[in-house]
From TrEMBL, chain A:
Biological source species: Micromonospora gifhornensis
PANTHER family recorded: 2-OXOGLUTARATE OXIDOREDUCTASE SUBUNIT KORA, PYRUVATE-FLAVODOXIN OXIDOREDUCTASE-RELATED
One Pfam family in the UniProt entry: POR
Protein's name in the database: Oxidoreductase
Domain Pyruvate/ketoisovalerate oxidoreductase catalytic: 20-207
Residue stretches making up the Pyruvate flavodoxin/ferredoxin oxidoreductase pyrimidine binding domain: 255-474
From TrEMBL, chain B:
Classification via SUPFAM superfamilies: Thiamin diphosphate-binding fold (THDP-binding)
InterPro entries hit by this protein: 2-oxoacid:Fd_oxidoreductase, THDP-binding, TPP_enzyme_TPP-bd
Source organism (scientific name): Micromonospora gifhornensis
UniProt entry tagged with the keyword Magnesium: no
Keywords recorded for this protein, A-Z: Oxidoreductase
Protein name (record): 2-oxoglutarate ferredoxin oxidoreductase subunit beta
Location of the Thiamine pyrophosphate enzyme TPP-binding domain: 55-202
Keyword Oxidoreductase attributed: yes
Membrane-spanning segments: none
């Protein structure tokens, strides 16, 4: 039969199933197929911390949302147009996010009495009025997959496990996705077990063919490619981009990279990725704890490497004392904090921006460091390079505040030309710098950068001792002199405060906005989408986004004061707002949410509309 | 390779311009002088030697050595030195620590450095007391120790540092005494020659807060009846007249001290630091009690195992061996790996 083809400008699909159902993989593949087609994309995985929560339960539900469009988009989408629910738990956990009219594809094989009871359904939602108003497509995914693989030499268990590929095949057909990359992927993934390649490919094709033949799916959709700048793209997660940024910083500085890390969600993927790049001079060490991880990184920096440590909030707390030592030693050090919901263990796989305070202030003594936050998955690459640039140029620890949302979310990335990346080369001290021509003064500063010389062991004639005790200006000798301590504390503050960072840019296309929305880090997408929606409705609103949180851009105060109202949405209880109010005496309004999930553009739009009404 | 040029350094070359600020009479002075006098033997240029320390009296040591040095934070010296040593295999990296620094706050880093066999020479100055914080008991103080923080006596049992290091898979374990320069330098020599972690416990007198802690090992009148001087390949006998010896009684797990006169010569244990099973060195470490009778000094254990540094460096070297592209070309290839697509303008 001939199917009707309908054009759409954007679609949000959520794949949801049990932790063991392979939903992350399914979402990844669908995203990759979609990227090949040239749509703009944004993705949001959402999974439990438990590796295998009890099967079929609500806490065990894992999902992957992908938003794709024929124009540039900023978020993974507020609400799905399509939900693929592999079991009753996946349906129940996600139904509240679904607007009426959305398509729901359910795996009917899993809607057994037992599975329904596990999540508290007294009767099947497929039979009662629970799903009234939705376009429900009941599909016997498991049994059809097993049936499709009957001729193949695979166990029933392996056949059943291929059902996610059946779902992927069906969705790929529905949205006219090119599937060659998925077939190639399956060949790579199961290279050692050809029978599984055959099984998964067969399941995928069965799903595709089911869509083509069944009358339940009468419409097929197309989303045209987005108009994006020319060049070569890849889809990339924030953690992958951040890892590549660190590798690039090593190449562009000509320094070996040394990563000291202790496994912690959601930062471990950076350790995994960097451990693959020894060819490019990256050494990784899985340390015995968070403190050793940063200690080893600092030791490597002392020896002339780019020392890096990666962690999440609890790890930053443990590293605090060593960061203070690095402040006193004035050595380059990159600390990556992929923030997650706290306090304590909190919700390790959920996002939050609540480590701004610890990054800015969480040390003993006056111990200022530079702080930078990426605004999107691909921006993690450039933020890592910028963090490395500041660390190397100004000989200081730099904290890079990523979060779970940008770390695991993905978007297309226009690959940069390597030669266009910043030149990060540094000069080590090689000769005495004292006036007598023979003395070495380890704390004699560069008048421009206020950085001290980086004299690495192995350099003859520059033997010197450094440590955590207060040092005399210039000589670096131990000093308890009151005036010297006062001078050194102020100098350490000044050398961070005077790092030149780019001015904050304001997006206010018509220039008539009276309300400014100020954000930092991963809220860039939802804030941007909300501002766009308001402007399309004729409501002027300006957006500014901070990449540099310490030091702050020189023009920020003037920008803030030029608006009648400043609104600061944050996934914390107002940490940036607190700083802004204290620093600039601006009566900023906080809008705060700590649900472990990113803002939706819709909630920000509603909130901003209220603010606009009252200006 | 050509013969290394003799650098002709002297102890004076290793003295920094900093005023030494330990209490008069502290055992640390003797250790510092012994180390400074020993260093020229290494024939390593000063700039390639680094001393890393934590916090405590002993940890001021790097300031007084005219080499590179870092006085870091409490307990973390082994971790910091690990990062330095792994990324700079050309350096000779020494860690100076104390019983509180290494065994209390920094215990985790010590055992993991030893387990990994990082190429560090770790000198633990053990005075069985907290000196810099003015006299609290330490993890090597005897049970019942009366200090400012334990006015009616400490309740916790101490560590035996040698046993601990052996349990942590150390490949080199030695013990020496601050006051015996010749012996101290002989153990340093063996430690310096060892590839991987070398753990050296140095009994050090704190004359302010724990004076005389090791007097039985120093008093010429009695020391020979307390000290067992371990020498590789030699039967273990000790005492002024060699009247005591060490045997491995059949059926027992450990070693015991006997009178030499009543022991057949073939039953006396011949010291072998290279025994693969750490149980032997462990048994040696359990001979003394807290009265310091039967205290072995010297090299308990010295076995070969590839250092962590060398394994890590070999992995990097192997990965780089096949590379023909420039780093920039490799990076461009890496950025463009995986599924890519091209949009034509």
């Amino acid at each position: 039969m001939t199917k009707q083809i309908r054009q759409l400008d954007r679609v949000v699909i959520r794949f949801a199933g049990d932790s063991g159902d392979g939903m992350q993989l399914t979402g990844d593949r669908f995203t990759s197929e979609t990227a090949q087609l040239g749509n703009d994309i944004s993705t949001l995985p959402n999974f439990p911390a438990e590796i295998r929560a009890p099967a079929g339960t609500l806490p065990g539900v894992s999902s992957f949302q992908v938003h794709f469009a024929d124009y540039d988009i900023l978020t993974p989408g507020d609400a799905p147009n399509v939900l693929v629910a592999m079991n009753p738990a996946a349906l129940k956990a996600n139904l509240t996010d679904l607007p009426r009219g959305a398509d729901i594809i359910v795996n009917t094989d899993e809607f057994t009495k037992r599975n329904l009871a596990k999540v508290g359904y007294a009767s099947s939602p497929l039979d009662d009025d629970t799903l009234d108003g939705y376009a429900v497509h009941p599909v016997a995914l498991t049994s059809m997959t097993i049936g499709a693989l009957a001729e193949l030499d695979v166990s029933k268990k392996d056949a059943e496990r291929a059902k996610n590929m059946f779902a992927l095949g069906l969705l790929s057909w529905m949205y006219s996705r090119p599937y060659e990359s998925t077939l190639r992927f399956l060949e790579r993934k199961f290279a050692k077990r050809p029978e599984l390649v055959a099984a998964n490919v067969a399941a995928f094709k069965a799903g595709w063919n089911f869509g083509e033949t069944t009358e339940d799916f009468s419409v097929r959709y197309e989303v045209k490619p987005a108009k994006m700048p020319a060049g070569t793209y890849r889809n990339i997660t924030g953690n992958a981009a951040l890892s590549l940024g660190i590798v690039a910083a090593g190449v562009r500085s000509g320094l070996p990279v040394f990563l000291g890390a202790y496994p912690i969600t959601p930062a471990s993927d950076i350790l995994h990725e960097l451990s693959k790049h020894k060819r490019l001079g990256v050494t990784t060490m899985q340390a015995e704890d968070e403190i050793a991880a940063i200690g080893a990184a600092l030791g490597a920096s002392y020896g002339g490497a780019l020392g890096v440590t990666t962690t999440s909030g609890p790890g930053v707390a443990l590293k605090s004392e060593t960061i203070s030592l690095a402040v006193a030693l004035e050595l380059p050090l990159l600390i990556v904090d992929v923030q997650r919901a706290g306090p304590s263990t909190g919700m390790p796989t959920k996002t939050e921006q609540a480590d701004l305070n610890i990054a800015l202030f969480g040390r003993h003594g006056e111990a200022p460091v530079a702080v930078i936050a990426p605004k999107s998955p691909s921006d993690c690459f450039y933020a890592a390079l910028e963090a490395a640039r500041i660390a190397l140029t100004y000989r200081t620890p730099v904290i890079l505040l990523s979060d779970n949302y940008v770390a695991n979310g993905s978007e297309p990335w226009l690959l940069p030309d390597v030669e266009s990346l910043p030149d990060l080369r540094v000069e080590f001290a090689s000769a005495p710098n004292g006036e007598d021509g023979t003395t070495f003064l380890p704390y004699l500063r560069d008048p421009q950068t206020l950085a001290r010389p980086w004299a690495i062991p192995g350099t003859p004639g520059l033997e010197h001792r450094i440590g955590g005790l207060e040092k005399a200006d210039k000589t670096g000798d131990i000093s308890y002199d009151p005036a010297n301590h006062d001078f050194m504390v102020r100098t350490r503050a000044a050398r961070i405060e005077t790092i030149p960072v780019p001015d904050v840019e304001v997006e206010d296309p018509d220039g008539d906005a009276r309300v400014l929305v100020l954000g930092w880090g991963s809220t860039y997408g939802p804030i941007g989408a909300a501002c766009r929606a308001l402007r399309q409705r004729g409501l002027p609103v300006a957006q500014a986004h901070l990449r540099h949180l310490a030091p702050m851009p020189a023009n920020l105060g003037a920008v803030l004061r030029s608006y009648d109202r400043v609104v600061i949405p944050e996934m914390n209880l107002g940490q940036l707002a607190h700083v802004i109010r204290a620093r600039y005496l601006v009566d900023a309004i906080g809008y705060n949410q700590v649900r472990g999930l990113p803002f939706t553009a819709a909630e920000l739009e509603t909130m901003l509309e209220e603010v606009l009404k009252n200006v | 390779m050509s013969e290394p040029v003799a650098l002709k350094l002297t102890a004076k070359d290793f003295k920094s311009d900093q005023e030494v600020r330990w209490c008069p009479g502290c055992g640390d002075y003797a250790i510092l002088a012994a180390v400074q006098q020993f260093m020229p033997e290494l024939n390593i240029p000063r700039e390639n030697i680094v001393f890393v320390s934590g916090i405590g009296c002993s940890s001021r040591f790097p300031y007084y050595m005219n080499t590179y040095g870092m006085h870091s934070i409490h307990g973390r010296a082994p971790a910091i030195a690990t990062g330095l040593s792994v990324s700079r295999p050309d350096l000779s990296v020494w860690v100076v620590t104390g019983d509180g620094d290494a065994l209390s706050i920094g215990g985790n880093h010590l055992i993991h450095a030893l387990r990994r066999n990082v190429n560090l020479k770790i000198l633990l100055f053990n005075n069985r007391i907290y000196g810099l914080t003015k006299g609290q008991y330490s993890p090597t103080s005897e049970v019942g120790k009366i200090t400012k923080s334990t006015p009616v006596g400490s309740a916790d049992a101490p560590f035996n540092p040698i046993s601990l290091a052996l349990g942590a898979e150390a490949t080199f374990v030695g013990r020496t005494i601050d006051s015996d320069r010749k012996h101290l330098q002989s153990v340093l020599r063996a430690a310096a020659e060892h590839e991987g972690s070398a753990f050296v416990e140095i009994y050090q007198n704190c004359n302010i807060f724990n004076d005389g802690a090791f007097d039985q090992l120093k008093d010429p009148g009695i020391r020979d009846d307390h000290l067992i001087r371990l020498e590789h390949g030699q039967p273990i006998t000790f005492g002024k007249d060699g009247q005591f010896c060490v045997v491995h009684p059949p059926g027992g797990f450990g070693l015991e001290v006997r009178e030499t006169a009543n022991t057949p010569a073939e039953e006396i244990v011949v010291h072998d630091a290279g025994v693969a099973d750490p149980a032997y060195a462990f048994a040696l470490s359990r001979l003394p009690g807290f009265d310091l009778r039967n205290t072995p000094i010297g090299v308990f254990r010295s076995v070969a195992r590839p250092s962590y540094d060398s394994v890590v460096q070999a992995q990097v070297a192997e990965a780089k061996a096949s590379v023909t592209e420039t780093p920039e070309q490799q990076l461009a290839g890496l950025l463009g790996s995986g599924d890519t697509w091209t949009i034509v303008g």
